[in-house]
Amino acid sequence: MSGHSKWHSIKHKKAKEDAKRGNLFGKLSKSIIVAIKDGGGVSDPKDNITLANAIAKAKEYNMPQANIERAVKRGTGEIEGESYESIVYEGYGPGGIAIIVEALTENRNRTASDVRNTFAKYGGNLGESGSVSWQFERKGLLVVEKSALKDEEEFMLEAIDFGAEDIEEADGVFEVKVEPADFIKVKESFETNNISIKTSEIGLIPKSTVELSVDEGKRAMKLINALEEHDDIQNVHSNIELSQEILDAVDEG
């Protein structure tokens, strides 16, 4: 078990910001639609792990079942809608942090222009494909609150048996890292064994993080937040190490 979390503060901040956004359900719907189309039209989550993950995330954010079903129908073509494509942008932010932007858009040129302008406005710049992606790895992450566990040692042993690759402890939680292909299996094993999951997702996790000054960190978070607020952008990943001082500075504006 590792002793220091590289991404908990980033995920915590992101979840806090996501919850405030009125466009969150729209983004979740897009991910469901694209998961079905990229999966060859397969609409059964049991046979489409990407779709299963997308629906699980939608439910985690309390997206109404009617919205989920409507998104599935749009993905299968039962209901007409926009045709989205996945695009990934890579770049650098203030202090040289690496940033990866995952977007779903029906207008590639518009989104590319908006992303480029946002990077420039907040002191960053876009890079070439592959320029920063080597600094990240795609993993499944399940967060479990320590206060909800009867026996922490037993939990860790069970998590390993279920397929956990690594377990990290941070800020009152255990973060369980798994291979994307094992994500659903491990999550279902936790649920079956009454292990309460605080949050879970599959995403890009930085292999290491970069510490910034409070001023640089504040500017970097302004860039990240501006990108995340864009309707076409699904996820923004970075390798910033968020200190409490930076979080407080961001909250203060």
Note the main sheet: 4 strands, antiparallel
Radius of gyration: 18 Å
Low-confidence stretches: 1-10
Mean pLDDT: 85
The CATH superfamily title of the largest domain = YebC, transcriptional regulation domain
Order of helices and strands: HHHHEEHEEHEEHEEHEEH
CATH-scheme architecture of the largest domain:
2-Layer Sandwich
State which percent range the strand residues make up. Answer: 15-25%
**Count of DSSP strands:** 10
Q: What is the strand arrangement across the widest sheet? A: 3-1-2-9
The CATH topology of the largest domain: Alpha-Beta Plaits
Gap between N and C termini, in Å? Answer: 36 Å
Shape: globular
Secondary structure elements and their pairing?
Elements: H1 8-18, H2 24-38, H3 49-60, H4 65-76, E1 85-92, E2 98-105, H5 108-121, E3 125-126, E4 136-145, H6 152-162, E5 166-170, E6 173-178, H7 183-192, E7 199-206, E8 210-211, H8 214-228, E9 233-238, E10 240-241, H9 244-252
Parallel strand pairs: 8-10
Antiparallel strand pairs: 1-2, 1-3, 2-9, 4-6, 4-7, 5-6
Q: How does this model look, in words?
A:
With about 250 residues, this protein is α+β, with helices and mostly antiparallel strands. The chain folds into 3 domains: about 15-75, Arc Repressor Mutant, subunit A; about 85-135 and about 210-240, YebC, transcriptional regulation domain (Alpha-Beta Plaits); about 135-205, Alpha-Beta Plaits (2-Layer Sandwich). The chain contains 9 helices and 10 strands. The protein has helices at about 10-20, 25-40, 50-60, 65-75, 110-120, 150-160, 185-190, 215-230, 245-250, and strands at about 85-90, 100-105, 125, 135-145, 165-170, 175-180, 200-205, 210, 235-240, 240. Strands 3-1-2-9 form a 4-stranded antiparallel beta sheet. A 4-stranded antiparallel beta sheet has the order 5-6-4-7. Strands 8-10 form a two-stranded parallel sheet. Helix 2 (about 25-40) runs parallel beside helix 4 (about 65-75). The two termini are about 35 Å apart.
